Amino acid sequence: MKHTSRDIRTANRYEVLRHIIAESPTSRQELAAVTGLSLATVATLVGELLELRMITEVGFEDSAGGRPRGLVAVNASGGALIGVDIAETYVHVELFDLALNVLARAEEDMRPGENRPEQVVGQVAAAVGAVVAQAGIEGARVLGVGVSVPGQVDRATGIAEYAPNWDWHDVPLLGLLAEHIAYPLHLDNPLRACAVAEQWFGAARGRGDTVVVNLGTGVGAGLALGGGLHRGVSNSAGEWGHTTLVLDGRPCHCGNRGCVETYVGAPGIMLNLRELNPQSPLLHPEDQTATVGALARGLADGDPVAVAVVRDTARYIGAGIANLVNLLNPELVVLSSWVARKLGEPLLAEVREAVRRHALGRPFAATEIVLSPIPTDPVCLGAATFALEGALRSVGLRNGGRPGRTVPASR
Amino acid sequence: MKHTSRDIRTANRYEVLRHIIAESPTSRQELAAVTGLSLATVATLVGELLELRMITEVGFEDSAGGRPRGLVAVNASGGALIGVDIAETYVHVELFDLALNVLARAEEDMRPGENRPEQVVGQVAAAVGAVVAQAGIEGARVLGVGVSVPGQVDRATGIAEYAPNWDWHDVPLLGLLAEHIAYPLHLDNPLRACAVAEQWFGAARGRGDTVVVNLGTGVGAGLALGGGLHRGVSNSAGEWGHTTLVLDGRPCHCGNRGCVETYVGAPGIMLNLRELNPQSPLLHPEDQTATVGALARGLADGDPVAVAVVRDTARYIGAGIANLVNLLNPELVVLSSWVARKLGEPLLAEVREAVRRHALGRPFAATEIVLSPIPTDPVCLGAATFALEGALRSVGLRNGGRPGRTVPASR
Fold first, then answer.
1. Mutation site for B-interface testing, chosen from A169, A326, A356, A410 by largest number of B Cβ within 10 Å
2. Domains, in order of start, for chain A
3. pLDDT at B106
4. Is the interface score ipTM higher than 0.85?
């Protein structure tokens, strides 16, 4: 509940920049209206961001009867941000300008079994070097690198505490990466990256409490509650994939049984298919991506096995989302990540129907369920925003002690 | 995210009064430190509360080297608050002074089948009359009545939208009560009442994110997140009792199957007992209270059937709480309501062990699980605080337009 004035100053600076990035050009008056900050505070923060060259003055707009209002916009070329999505089956790296446009992209598949920390670090370092070279950016302009890794992470120490799919325990990931990458590094996990991406650029923009359900190899839920991310006391909130849906059900690599993930993560979907038809040509043993792709094509072709598997999977996803709806009563549920993207609208329709069957009527009626509208990898985008947040925080630390640069924390 | 300045003013006034009630006497300086409000804002709010005679000046304390600091304390006799707990098997009504001490209490059992709205309203009205008479309070000093009813409620309209245990749908409860009770009425549900009671006076005082798990006839979870109550978009968050724990499991009156409540609500516990030993003398058919009481005595006597039933029930509770721990990563889980109180420490020990088996290691290690330390009915206490909040809001509305009475919303 208690925050230092430096925390509040950083949060306000970030909030103002976020609105400028989302809606450029804009005026100080408009920013005051959308953030709830006083005009004086906004003017000070805008002045700071101008001085940092993160935004620029771009002219004036008429205001009804009053003085013309100065307009500001994000200075897209004022710096670059890198987002890294380390997933179970691939590494994606994207380089963004300050308007969060993608300037360069690198993708590498992760071969099964090649997921030791030093192997992953090597892949990431190579891909980061590749996007910087590809974009033709001077290294000095890279403000930071946000790194997303599945499982539980300690943001302060940069340690990947527990990644159940790889059985990583307490891997000092940022320390290992820092041996190869000279830019400031910021660690978090894909649940929170996706949630922030939806809040900034996706379905959750301007909406209330939102749950972003990630459907990939692992699954989880990013919780955007009360206007911010709900992280929990040790930054591990959102482990929806490891909530029990079927007591004494399928064994999970986390040690529990009947976890949501064992039915709706990509390996769980493969098992759903195998249980329905072990000989199905849709099944590509050892290749999740190919199997989910085959299911998507099967759906489009009306293949009855594909339809049955997706319906079966949607029943589990729907019962699990109904739990989120009953417990959290969100305004919005967003389906994100690669499995949701591949199975798309047909999956969404089945999931909606399954949520309706399992949820209480009132909270179900209050919740909208949609697919993520973000066309690129939302994890890279969210990870890049963590790097931006980190850059603003370090600006605050550098300038915090200098007289004349303090920003009023009042609102 | 956006609040009007009147909302902020009311919230700040409430926050200051809450701290004075929790910690009397206290100084303006101390209040500024614990609330994060500026000293000037606190001084204004304290001035208002003094004028309303809700608090009084009680002397001075020395401050190291500076001027003596004026101390204020709650004016216990400055008003009375009534909390009403309408549960499935009883109605409890308590009358409090402004320090939230109980001055009078009325309890009535609700006979099975006698739960039509007009029957319940008659019982509540009689009990409210009884506590006012018993306390010898002038009616004019009753600032309000907080009413808790299970299920989903619309606070703004005073409608009990859905109470699954009674099959109530859209009952205009406050309207019906207002025909008998002349004091301001405020409706909410027991999940939120218990959560607020723990925040103000119980285990959650001064703690971070807390889940208050209510174990009664119905079950649910009050969510105290980010320093406030998480209500959800339609005020129905917390329906943990209607999250699926056993897909396709026991039928629930909500229409779903395998809900947590069907295994751990008092009727679910009776079913656990019946499945284990249909002839058990511990079983009092048609009487939940007597059965849970018999189980508690059986536990104390080492009765193997009682031990087995409580272990079985604790396994379900623990798996359900593990879901909350994995999803929300709270600092604290509090077991509340009458079933938790009756089964006490032996239940707690079994629940802790079951949560440990089902939860992820990291969030489990970060969570403390305790019994509610509140000795009286926490629902009445929480409901009374909703009445207090309502009283402060109406003060704000009455004085809001008068010049010279505006309170700066800055913090």
1. A326
2. 5-74 (1.10.10.10), 78-193+377-390 (3.30.420.40), 204-371 (3.30.420.40)
3. 96
4. yes
